[in-house]
Amino acid sequence: MVAWTDFERATIKDIFSKIDYEHIVLFLCLCLIVYPWTQRYFAGFGNLYNAAAITSNPKVAAHGKVVMQGLEKAVKNMDNIKATFTELSTLHSEKLQVDPDNFMLLGDCLAIVVAAQLGKDFTPEVHAAFQKFLAVVVSSLRRQYY
Amino acid sequence: LHFSFLVVKTTSNRNPTDKMSLSAKDKNTVKAFWANVVGMEEDIGCDAVSRMLTVYPQTKIYFSHWKDLSPGSAPVRKHGATVMTAVTDAVSKIDDLTGGLLSLSELHAFTLRVDPANFKVLAHNLLVVLAIVFPNDFTPEVHVAMDKFLAAVARALSEKYR
């Protein structure tokens, strides 16, 4: 079980209460742009030809929201993220067949978008708490793989 | 099933510039964006190193000789400036990073012996700082060019390791 300090708990909840949900979905666009091999999982999403196409693609935006909802579930269940994500992990492993190394790529993109939104408030300590949260999420998603 | 990942992750003895090398567009994007950094190197470098030590505490082992490893401390600030000066220099040598960073590579390989995995860690923290400091200029296109550039710098620094 993950040990969260009071600071970390408060910080994670605070981050999720502060982020601009309208624009946070950019993190998925960023992943598809910066790590273009991740586009292999979104073949049915239409035009991903260049950065402009990706950032204006409504399917990408919609899927960004789906991922954010998954993360919110983790925030609500911080003491049991592993169990919370058992089904999602199986889904990514068996049905979607996503290379688990990609999870942290997406996580790093989210860290950068959150950093840009929060600016100076995204201090090194806040940043550390957030990356720890992401590491736990990633580890939970990797759990059901072979 | 994951063939494209095998290509990406394989370490080969081929010329490193074969792997996801910088296009002319990448180089121009990096040079143009880096002009924004002039004058702010110390602050940006200080913040990047501070974050690296805080978010990835395993990196502290390389600095156990410092009196103070807290964010923004004097040795952190000084080292941030050192790193950023080197990155600015790398931008000017973007057409031949391997040649241009030869002595730095020898330093990291034989004297500092930094595990090259940490280059990626520092690069990520630098990108976070750039996103904070330049929310409008650090577009996805700049981000990918900078990510590629820092990966190329890391490869050049790793040249002499073995």
From TrEMBL, chain A:
GO terms for biological process: hydrogen peroxide catabolic process. PROSITE patterns: GLOBIN. Residues 3-146 form the Globin domain. The chain crosses the membrane at residues 21-38. The keyword 4Fe-4S does not apply. It holds the Pfam family Globin. This is Hemoglobin subunit beta-like. It comes from Neolamprologus brichardi.
From TrEMBL, chain B:
GO terms for cellular component: blood microparticle; haptoglobin-hemoglobin complex; hemoglobin complex. Residues 21-162 form the Globin domain. Transmembrane segments: none annotated. One of its GO terms (biological process) is hydrogen peroxide catabolic process. The keyword Metal-binding applies. InterPro entries: Globin (IPR000971), Globin-like_sf (IPR009050), Globin/Proto (IPR012292), Hemoglobin_a-typ (IPR002338), Hemoglobin_oxygen_transport (IPR050056). It comes from the Eukaryota. Keywords: Heme, Iron, Metal-binding, Oxygen transport, Transport. Belongs to the globin family. Gene3D superfamilies: Globins (1.10.490.10). This is Hemoglobin subunit alpha-2-like. One of its GO terms (molecular function) is haptoglobin binding.
